[in-house]
Amino acid sequence: MSRARAAVILAAGQGTRMKSKTVKVLHSVGGRPMLDWAAQLADDADASKRVVVYGAHSPAVRDAGDALGAETALQDPPQGTGHAVQAAEGAFDGFDGDLIVLYADTPLIRAETVERVFDALAEGAAVAVLGFEPEDPAAYGRLIEDADGNLDRIVEYKDANEEERAVRLVNSGVMAARADLMFELLGEVTNDNANGEYYLTDVVGLARGRGLRAVAVRADADEVLGVNSRVDLAEAEAAFQTRKREEMMRAGVTLVAPETVFFSHDTEIERDVVVEPHVVFAPGVKIEEDATVKAFSHLEGTTVRNGASVGPYARLRPGADIGPNAKIGNFVEVKKAQLADGAKVSHLSYIGDAHIGEGANIGAGTITCNYDGYDKHLTEIGAGAFIGSNTSLVAPVKVGEGAYTGSGGVVTNDVPDNALAVARAEQVHKDGWAERYRKAKLARKNKGEQA
User: Fold this and answer.
1) Residues annotated as part of the active site
2) Do residues 405 and 386 touch, judged by C-beta distance below 8 A?
């Protein structure tokens, strides 16, 4: 790469069709705001400068851009895509490099596709436009190429004749050029059109008018799917999930029913992992080799180590670290807890803010009582310990290595290594009580029937 690169990310749209209090570009695909996708794409393309253009109605976009480490520029009032790019011009004083225009509502463009756009500039094009061929070109602007394969012009559908409308290559909106040339040409764009707006697409015609070469770079249609409504958002999510499922399976992950498994943008799964149906991976999950995630489990902010088993019907919350060969069974919830090698929590338990030692066994119905209404406290269970069913462990508390707790206990004090803790009321028998109780019940029933 010989020239510096930069990206302007357009994020100033009103997004009224989303019918949402949340700004459109802050809605998520794959567990990540669409604006973040565009910023990451610019990073992946080695853009040394990123400028997010936001509108006066969306200070949240400005704040999100700041949080991403991008520069921000205000477009006010909105007057079209060309005007939006011009709003960022001040950020490029002294910048000598190539500039690409990206869209914060188009989250699925691949880095290699953007690389091909920059390659077109390196190969001599003055302007490069990203196009695609959808199943239904509908009302998209058409990219009209000449006999030599160069991009001659962009024609809006309403202005196209029948021959031009028959063209299937359409405009995604993504465009790249030398930064100084981009802003120079934008300075010549007028708003002499029905909408009174300054269109970025006019740059192609102005470049051609100077005898400069423009080209169209092709992308897959599912990459450039723009989001303008909740329907579009669902389509983008579906496209992301399809892509991610294929990526996982090609990497050696078994998905028993791929269409029922949902991933986040950062899900990491190593080879020879088996994922059963109806599993959701929220952000921050890593699964190591040979682990199994059984049906109807939900994982977030979690690491599952080699050979471990999770589920079915398990919930792993942020901070859960399931050790090698450990077992999390059905209807178990784990939060901010570390399980060592071979530890088992087989069913119907809550383990929060805890360290569970190697080979420890947690009986059914066990809960760590970690919250006192103000603070969270730690439960520590030693290696080889055995926690009896229906035990409540009131943190902060430690159960030593090899120790046992009797079933049904409420453990409030530390348990020494290899000790048995019995923490429940002494069982009392009342001889003959059951027989007297039944007789009294029967007598009352007979009296009621006689009345």
Assistant:
1) 347
2) yes
